[in-house]
Amino acid sequence: FDPERTVVRVASNSKLFTATAVMQLVERGRIRLDENVNAYLKNMRIPDTYPRPITMLNLLTHTAGFDEKNLGMSTLNEKDVIPLGTFMKNNMPGRVMEPGTVASYSNMGLTLAGYIVECVSGEPFYAYAREHLFKPLGMASSDFMPRPDLMERMAVPYLYRGGKHEVMPYDHDFCYPAGSLMTTASDMARFMIAHLQNGRYGAARILKTETAQLMHRRQFAHHPALPGMAVGFMEAVYRGLRMLE
């Protein structure tokens, strides 16, 4: 395993990149955290199930109140992959809780946030991530799409079944802003250091200091004594110390 070359899929750590992309557009005045997300959506609308609308902050703190489903979210056949906007329009989850009242982990919520980045920026989410996150941080071995040069270096996953190991095929995730990032340990360290330094890595800056600090600040908790939700991050406590993960 080579930290510079071995490519792995990092699943839901993808959500932190999606949240960071949203916050870049927030600091440019293109997105407001307290705005009804319907203001940014194209060709679809979230129904007014509850009086309170879903905001971008709800999406980034898992408090939108969406139902969650895990079936029909990916395909093994690349030919069956559909555009992000088409998938969201045809698979918008039901609203089952008042926004801002319950933290309920939501893949669809962060996927919707990624699609809004697409709507506002005018470019596919994966292209936005390449230009505004990976490029400035020097993350040349990272992508949300299965680039051939990265697939050649992908660590091989196995499934143990029937007394033998089977190579697991690549699954194409329709909710790719929420879980499809492929990267290396070295690239991931660059992103981690950028957040540890409030948006800066070397001479590059992906967020203003105050924006990064906002992301790291608690935005929701069920009780003051319990760990809560920051923007894209979750709080945890280890031996009395507040952690972000």
DSSP summary: helix tally: 9
Q: How far is the first residue's CA from the last residue's CA?
A: 24 Å
| Low-confidence region ranges | none
Briefly note the structural class of the backbone: alpha+beta
Question: Could you outline the blueprint of secondary structure elements for this entry?
Answer:
Blueprint: E1 8-9, H1 14-27, H2 56-60, E2 74-75, H3 84-90, H4 107-121, H5 125-137, H6 148-151, E3 158-161, E4 164-167, E5 172-173, H7 176-179, E6 182-183, H8 185-196, E7 200-201, E8 204-205, H9 209-216, E9 235-238, E10 241-244
Antiparallel strand pairs: 1-6, 2-5, 3-4, 7-8, 9-10
Structure description:
This protein is α+β, with helices and mostly antiparallel strands and about 240 residues long. Helices cover about 35% and strands about 10% of the residues. The chain contains 9 helices and 10 strands. The protein has helices at about 15-25, 55-60, 85-90, 105-120, 125-135, 150, 175-180, 185-195, 210-215; strands spanning about 10, 75, 160, 165, 170-175, 180-185, 200, 205, 235-240, 240-245. The strands form 5 sheets. Strands 1-6 form a two-stranded antiparallel ribbon. A two-stranded antiparallel ribbon has the order 2-5. Helix 1 (about 15-25) packs parallel to helix 4 (about 105-120) and helix 1 packs across helix 5 (about 125-135). The mean pLDDT is about 95.
